[in-house]
Amino acid sequence: MILTLEWTDEGVRFLDQRVLPLEETYVLAKDYNQVAEVITTMVVRGAPAIGVSAAMGVALGVRQSKAADLNALKPEFEQICNTLAGTRPTAVNLFWAIERMRQRYLALAAEPGATVQSVAQGLKEESLRMYDEDIQACREMGAHGASLMPTDGGVLTHCNAGALATCGYGTALGVIRAAVEQGSRLRVFADETRPFLQGARLTAWELMHDDIPTTVLCDNMAASLMRKGQISAVIVGADRIAANGDVANKIGTYGVAVLAKEHGIPFYVAAPWSTIDVQTATGEDIPIEERAQVEVTHHGGKQLTPQGVGIVNPAFDVTPAKYVTAIITERGVLRAPYAESLRELEPAAL
């Protein structure tokens, strides 16, 4: 299994996704500020992986605290959480993970005889539990979604929603992996996913690693292949899913969904339950991260655009629920109307 991140005695170790597929190198974050930097600079990316990374960052920060007692630790703990929460605004898993660590911190601190050291140990164990849960959730998603894939045909995916975006196995690519494991003969088309090229660099690398036939497409080629009947299904991941089923995912996903609808192709979203944000009513309320202009103006250190030209670089867009055929989670497959199907799997959610 591809090792995206891991807890070590020295800190949190990350596979550096910025230099894949040409280099397989690792970055060691030795404190929580370095974990925050790793998330911001996309050494690690993908909503589930970002969430677990933040949880480990919280645990690392508390472990390294010099606080004399729990009273002194409390403001430092909040500073750690706030720093990590400020890294990327769209992926709700980030905030879910930090809140889970906050609740665990409060429970640990309330235990009789609790110390800074016992709280630190408990938070480390919680982050490792979240790591294991993420891998299990991806495998369960794969089991639920495999039957939705064609037994023999082309599947399009956008961005990278694989092992590299999670702690292992993957969400959208986990469904593809599970289908292949069950005997489906899939041919994957991976949008290159400009401007960061997650599809060309990461999805292609992952699937080739697993000997799954893969073809990289420029982002503007999907419509042509759909019209020719070469694509039987689309499956993507998500960074946040609103209560009504609107989906925020990597920029360009919305266009793919519209094309799939026009050509009568099912459009599936695979994401863990932690990606569903029932506090956000619709996609209109999802904050969209605007990233640095240099990601568009330069590639490989070389400038591609005229000096001074205007640049927009939103990292995500929102696909309205009406374009989503189904949402695949570890709890089962959701279908429209999504507010109702969400309530069936978690009655207290809405």
End-to-end gap: 36 Å
Please give the order of strands in the largest beta sheet.
6-5-4-7-10-15-16
CATH class of the largest domain, named Alpha Beta
Order of helices and strands: EEEHHHHHEHEHEHEEEHEEHEEEEEH
Q: Biggest sheet, in brief?
A: 7 strands, mixed
Shape designation: globular
DSSP helix fraction: 40-55%
CATH topology of the largest domain: Rossmann fold
Query: Over the alpha carbons, how many angstroms does the gyration radius reach?
Result: 20 Å
- How many structural units, i.e. domains? 2
Percentage of residues in DSSP E strands: 15-25%
Question: From the 3D coordinates, which CATH architecture of the largest domain would you assign?
Answer: 3-Layer(aba) Sandwich
Would you tell me the overall average pLDDT? 96
Unreliable spans are none
CATH homologous superfamily name of the largest domain? Answer: Translation initiation factor eif-2b, domain 2
Described by its quaternary structure, the protein is: single chain
**What's the number of helices?**
11
> How many beta-strand runs?
16
